């Protein structure tokens, strides 16, 4: 997967989901610049973080989101207004008639953004942490078939398989807007390394599988990531975000 610098003028065809990758490593000038772009409620939320590094990453992630969306909408980043669903999924509040759909996720120093026209999207990225007790977490949140897939893997590959499954489930729930109102074990996904990403079964409504499609994203050796979008007729284009400072 090639992450290229974006062109000066962006186009977004109806059959594309454009994915942006951004580094959240911050310096004081960058933090100040992106904080200035945020709305008062975003700045208030940033100030509630206990650790400075978490505050900085939030400021960077939200500021970059505004810059990316502003390029598609031809508006100033600081003028964009958001609303949130009951499960916390963001969308544009102004312009309220915009068909631009988006989603974001960040973990560690990496942020990912998915953008599409008239097509709901969800994206998730996770830093693969070897200290996580993947087997115990999978017993609580994964379907029996997924646990069986994990158990057949070597310990070295088990963490990759676990985070494959986790990001695919999260991306699906974010795309549908359901969030954690649906238990994670009610969504069955492929997770074996080198196996194509698939949504295999949705317990509450098997027809949901046909409404969405999924792709794994290669974003770095220490990360797992996936994007889910409505329909089957879309392809990915990837961009590397260039920071303002």
């Amino acid at each position: 997967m090639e992450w290229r610098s974006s062109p000066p003028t962006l186009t977004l065809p109806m059959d594309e989901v454009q994915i942006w990758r951004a580094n959240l490593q911050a310096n004081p000038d960058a933090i100040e610049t992106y904080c200035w772009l945020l709305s008062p409620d975003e700045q208030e939320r940033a100030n509630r973080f206990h650790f400075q590094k978490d505050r900085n990453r939030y400021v960077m992630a939200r500021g970059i989101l505004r810059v990316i969306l502003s390029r598609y909408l031809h508006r100033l980043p600081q003028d964009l207004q958001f609303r949130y669903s009951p499960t916390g999924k963001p969308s544009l509040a102004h312009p309220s008639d915009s068909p631009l759909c988006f989603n974001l996720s960040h973990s560690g120093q990496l942020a990912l953004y998915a953008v599409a026209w008239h097509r709901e999207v969800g994206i998730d990225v996770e830093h693969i942490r070897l200290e996580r007790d993947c087997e115990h977490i999978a017993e609580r949140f994964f379907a029996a078939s997924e646990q069986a897939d994990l158990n057949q893997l070597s310990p070295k590959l088990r963490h990759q398989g676990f985070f494959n499954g986790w990001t695919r489930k999260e991306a699906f729930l974010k795309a549908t807007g359901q969030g954690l109102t649906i238990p994670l074990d009610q969504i069955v996904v492929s997770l074996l390394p080198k196996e194509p990403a698939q949504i295999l079964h949705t317990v509450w409504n098997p027809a949901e599988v046909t409404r969405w499609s999924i792709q794994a994203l290669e974003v770095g050796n220490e990360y797992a990531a996936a994007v889910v979008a409505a329909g089957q007729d879309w392809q990915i284009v990837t961009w590397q975000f260039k920071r303002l400072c």
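The longest helix spans residues 52-73. The chain has two domains: 16-124+233-240, 127-230.
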